[in-house]
Amino acid sequence: MRPRVSIRLLLWLSFLLGPAAPAAAQFRPNGLRQVLRHDSAGLGRVLARPDNYRLQIQYTRIRRDAAGRPHFRTTTYRVRPREYFYPASTVKLAAAALALQKLRDINSVKQYAFHGQIPPLNPDSPMLTDSAFAGQTRVWRDTSSASGRPTVANYVRKALLVSDNDAFNRLYEFVGPEELNRELARLGLHHSRLQHRLSVGDQEPGSRHLNPIRFYADTAATQMLYQLPARYDAAPWPALHLRGEAIGNAYVKGANVVPGPLDFSQKNAFSLPDQQRLLQAILFPETVPPARRLRLAPEDYALLREAMSQLPRESRHPRYDVAHYPDTYAKFLLGGAGLAALPPGVRVFNKIGQAYGFLIDNAYVQDESHGVEFLLSAVLYVNADGVLNDDKYEYDAIGFPFLRDLGRRVYEAELQRATAAQK
């Protein structure tokens, strides 16, 4: 039985697929009816109950003028910046960009203080992290790096290519939550906060204690360029006043099932509009007001863009096994996290997140040969039993197929428009 579809949904999908047209034209092949014609594991199942799935979608069409300047037109479906969802690994994009910015800021201070007598830091400078508080760990070697030493550049690549959690944690320790949150606010991202590491049970006070870090000019670690002592970030967390930060009917803690919702009020937050705004600031910095731009050099932007768009097998350092990291491992929209290959000629610049039943993808899709480009960001929650931490989520049955199909239908609609415009 086909799910019932609301009038609001029909209006949204008709806008997504293009300007209003006569009824007969709207239902032509590959039109609205084609978008809605899916089995229960596809679009219809989720779109019929968007509140249950906590669905949010933000879609931005990009059109170029005669001079090649991009122009943006955004439409949203159920986007609620104050409605909480756990952002999982999507926060890694912010940490990566702000870590590269911090390197530039340090160099500016050093150049002023030492009149250029000390070599500048760069993203490939060996970065040695020590420990100074309970639960902290040190990193002095990195076999995935070309030099065998940890570097900001290699952490950025690992965080964005395959969503490595330790890479994010090292960038978090380098920048620090106070600076991360201050810069998020400066960039105009007012419904976001970063306040803990990932996958290590990080919480206060440990989340405020930051490891000592040293940067060197050489892989032998003989000429130190800069050091950060062990630090404690005492700044208050951003007051976001989000809704729905208590999630679920119960949660697993150790060997026990604890009744009642899990409290996310002390966890990271990163709203969907903020995610897409940051993506635009990285890919199209010239379209962002100067006061809200990242302080990055062209090579920093290039590193971020390459790491976001590369397939794991295309990376030399770090190197990834195709058997464990298929091409669309970190491409939920269009690729479905390994369910399908990307359409020929399509590149996706994105950052995904997956945890506690939430799936998120924040993506820029480009098909240069056909003149197709757009931004698409989406989040949905697939946890039918309402129990968190039980590892029983409908990622494969519902979540990944939905994001794959959503990305493909938007791409097909864009491709149809571009083809028609060229005739």
Task: Write a concise keyword list for the protein shown above.
423 residues; alpha+beta; 2 domains; five-stranded antiparallel sheet; three-stranded antiparallel sheet; 11 helices; disordered N terminus
Report what the structure shows.
About 30% of the residues lie in helices and about 20% in strands. With about 425 residues, the chain is α+β, with helices and mostly antiparallel strands. It folds into 2 domains: about 170 residues, no CATH class; about 180 residues, no CATH class. The chain has a 5-stranded antiparallel beta sheet with strand order 2-1-16-15-14, with helices on both faces. Strands 3-6-7 form a 3-stranded antiparallel beta sheet, with no helix packed on it. The chain is globular and about 60 Å long. The N terminus is likely disordered.
